[in-house]
Design a protein that fits this description.
The longest helix has 17 residues. The N terminus and C terminus are likely disordered. About 35% of the residues are buried. This protein starts with 13 loop residues before the first helix and ends in a 13-residue tail after the last strand. The chain has 12 helices and 9 strands. The protein has one domain: Vaccinia Virus protein VP39 (Rossmann fold), CATH 3.40.50.150. The protein is α/β, with parallel strands linked by helices. Bound molecules: S-adenosylmethionine. S-adenosylmethionine (SAM) binds next to loops.
């Protein structure tokens, strides 16, 4: 359903290369799922943009999944699936009660256009993203792979720009639990040994963008420092924490369907 012509084929979406087996490592976390469900504000019809394999879609709602990656949509269990990018949503204005977009805006070639589309097709918008201005950074970046910093800063919009583009009225911090089940990079802040597993690394688009010549020596050093106990000595404080705020944020714009018609919006 994406527009593509013989003269100008669309580039292969990244997740058509790296998306196989996504559901094995990227298991939706129930605490984040509850936050997203609540933020959707009683929406009955929801468009999930950058839906991937359908994580965080609330049960009992009428969901349409949109994603430009066929590999991802093939793993999505839903019935209504549209192969498209956020920048050109094939829906009427106001077609949905709500739109959701979870850990996807940083993949969009034109995020401002995509966010405009979300606002066009839905009354309420719920986004989950990361604030590149937030500190602390994950130790993996500071101590082993500073190359990740440039990559992430190039693709994540500053939070204030995202809030403005969405017209968001609510920003909710989501400190990452130590046993977060959705295996994107930050999930393993207290479980460093997971980074040694190539299957875990393959499920992360950040690792997928870094050459093996950069990743492998860094992982070898991590392996050695875990074996010697050096990592644990350096991070003894982290090992006592249950959550850390690493800058993940839920943003909400537009009125909820559970708000009284004349009551305060949002
Ligand atoms: C990290 S995955 C997140 C998937 C899902 N939202 C989740 O929380 O598991 C990012 C998704 O964004 C999709 N994506 C990439 N470019 C996109 C675009 N222009 N518009 C919409 N989605 C896009 C990818 O194909 C991929 O499925």
């Amino acid at each position: 359903m994406t527009a593509s012509t013989a003269e100008e084929p669309l580039p292969t979406p990244t997740y058509d290369r790296i998306g196989r087996g996504y559901r094995d490592v990227r298991r939706p976390d129930p605490r984040l799922a509850a936050l997203i469900r609540e933020a959707l504000g009683g929406a009955r019809s929801v468009v999930n943009v950058g839906a991937g394999t359908g994580s965080y879609e609330p049960a009992g709602t009428d969901v349409t999944a949109v994603d430009p990656s066929r590999v991802m949509l093939d793993q999505h269990p839903g019935r209504r699936k549209i192969l498209a990018g956020a920048e050109e949503l094939p829906f009427e204005d106001g077609a949905f009660d709500a739109a959701m977009a979870v850990m996807t805006v940083h993949h969009w070639p034109d995020p401002l256009r995509g966010l405009r589309e979300l606002r066009r097709v839905s009354r309420r918008q719920v986004l989950f993203t990361w604030d590149p201005g937030h500190r602390p950074e994950l130790w993996l970046i500071e101590e082993y792979l500073p190359e990740i910093r440039d990559l992430e800063h190039a693709r994540f919009m500053p939070l204030s720009a995202m809030v403005e583009a969405m017209g968001a009225h609510t920003v909710v911090p989501f400190p990452i639990p130590y046993d977060f089940t959705d295996g994107f990079q930050i999930a393993y802040w207290r479980r460093p040994e997971f980074f040694l597993d190539p299957v875990v690394r393959r499920a992360s688009s950040t690792f997928a963008q870094l050459p093996a010549s950069v990743v492998e020596p860094a992982i070898a050093r991590l392996r050695a420092e875990l074996a010697s106990g050096a990592w644990h000595r350096r991070h003894a404080d982290l090992l006592t924490r249950d959550t850390v705020d690493y800058g993940y944020r839920l943003l909400v714009a537009g009125p909820g369907d559970d708000a009284p018609p004349d009551g305060p919006r949002g």
